[in-house]
Fold this protein.
Amino acid sequence: MNTFKILQTLAETPGPSGYEREIADVITDLWQPYVDELVRDRVGNLIAIKYGSGVEPRRRLLLAAHMDEIALMVKQIVAHNEQGFLRVTPVGGVDRRHLYGQLVTVHGRSPLSGVLGALPNAMLPPERRNQPFDYEDLVVDVGLPLSEVEAQVSVGDFISFRQPLRKLQGKYVSGKALDNRASVTAVTHALEYLQTRTHTWDVVAVATCQEETRLLGAYTSAFSQRPDAAVAIDVGFGKGPGANGENVFDLGSGPVLDLGPNVHPGMFEALNDAAKALEMSVSVGTHQRGSGTDAYGLQVAREGIPTGLVSISLRYMHTMVETVHLADVERSGRLLGEFAARLDDQFINKLTAGLMDDEETESK
Amino acid sequence: MNDLIQKLVEAYGPSGFEDGMRALIRPEVEPYADDVSVDALGNLIVHKQGDGSGLKVMIAAHMDEIGLMVTHITKEGFLRFTNIGGVRPHGLWGSRVQFADGRIGLISSDRITDRSKIHGLDKHFIDVGATSAEDCPVEVGAAVGFARPFHANGKFLTAKSMDDRIGCVIAIEALKRLQNTPHDVYFVFSVQEEVGVRGALTAANALDPDVGLALDVTLTGDVPEAHPMSVSLGKGAAIKVKDSGMIAHAGLVKLMRQRAEEAGITHQLEVLDGGSTDARSIQIANGGAAAGCISIPCRYVHSQSETVHADDVEASIQLLVEILANPIEL
């Protein structure tokens, strides 16, 4: 499995929140060979099920990696000297500091290349220089007259960023949408890993939709699939200049296992045990309140689902130069595969018993 | 139709206190429904059966309105209050308000010394003509609605609580006009939208629809110095693509546009930067639903002079009927 090639295809395919059809097609092709069932639900999740070897009814593990990415949307078409320009609004947590000068594709009747423009520093009044532009100051220019723009583009059309995946030195790669196509790649590795390992549980791999806007896919797929346990896979903040304190991790140092309110401690332990079995080094991350990932939604579906969180460290989040280390992606996949293969009939009972033990200890 | 609009917009019904609204709407819909029920939260659920070939569709228009709640009564008999939903202090001074029993009060504020600043809600009070806490006829916890008569300025219709009584009117009219539908349609007149889109969530959990459509107002970009937005009053029903709470189902948006174009219904596309609707809850309930919204362009939302255009209201009714009368393929 060529990790770079897979990540390249995934990262370069547009898939803004709410418009995941195209990226779902790509993931379908990628996962089809490894799974027994593959469906799309009515909100846009791609759900792939690999049957376990246990007798029915089997327990199910849900792996959630969101496939959507941050993007822009056409809010208004404005005229200037008969030329048409587009005003935009963000889809998800776009960092507007980096918008000026980006290359985009406007998904109108047919895809149109465009650029995000605004006034250069020299044309701005002194007090507005060297500052990020507001959405009201930015336009997308596709180089067409107003009548053509109006014929090709509608309010509500989405705009994706146009950025190839590039290799830096070593195993570092950089591009757009590595949040969270790096994790989709990791899940692909996990599914491949499971081809050679017996697993008694069903593994339900979900490429979730609309995570960047409201964790929609996590809530809905966890409800419809009713898993016994779930793991969210997402990117986390990597170490780098200016980010060397707590809760940031070296790229290339392996997966990060999160602890915090969204994570069942027993799930954390089991993931950690799987890493030990593989002699894989992992780091421990923490979150307060919400983890900002699908784990937040998975955890509260139905009667509540024991949930874990695996993170791939990434630098420059929500920019067009998101950077990850390919070894982290591969190791995260192997870890998830091993974790799934180790699940047995007693797993859920042990999770519950583990909690009871802790309570007794505390009461003494 | 203005009579029905007037009846609904002038009525009292802050979030959580929708009983009166339900009593007003029920007789309007009962003759046209196969079943009418009320759930534990107070949603009014009106079922129109399909012929079995279509989907389960939930239509939501919220009955509740923004308002106030009495938090404290001063010894002089004035009422201090907090907000129910998105009430801003701008424009409160001199307002008249109504209570569940029809009693009228008026709002004023503590002395204004700096006219460049606006007092917060906590420095406003309601005067109900009491002279002391003892003879005050209102209790702490009383919910307060605004009181303002409906006014039609030609096709410009102005009232308090167009948000979302105009959505209720559209749902009622569409139900009346809808002869046959392939779909199992549930018109939900929902509660507590203004305080976190809560009624629609429980209704959607219970009904588990395939498709959810909210009917609610949206902002416009057509007034002086408005926040840039492409929606204008009088330019038709607005088909929501995105608001700050959700992204509408792409297939549903496409279908709504197609139905509007086929039937020659004036429409526009809506991308709203602030605010959301019942569709947000329907989208995420249970395993999720394909959710969208027919928005009614409205100026001065959350003021006491919310203004919609009669042509947009008519277009919205027609669009809803077209969607429900035809197959929905997503």
Q: What stands out?
A: Chain A has ten helices and 17 strands.
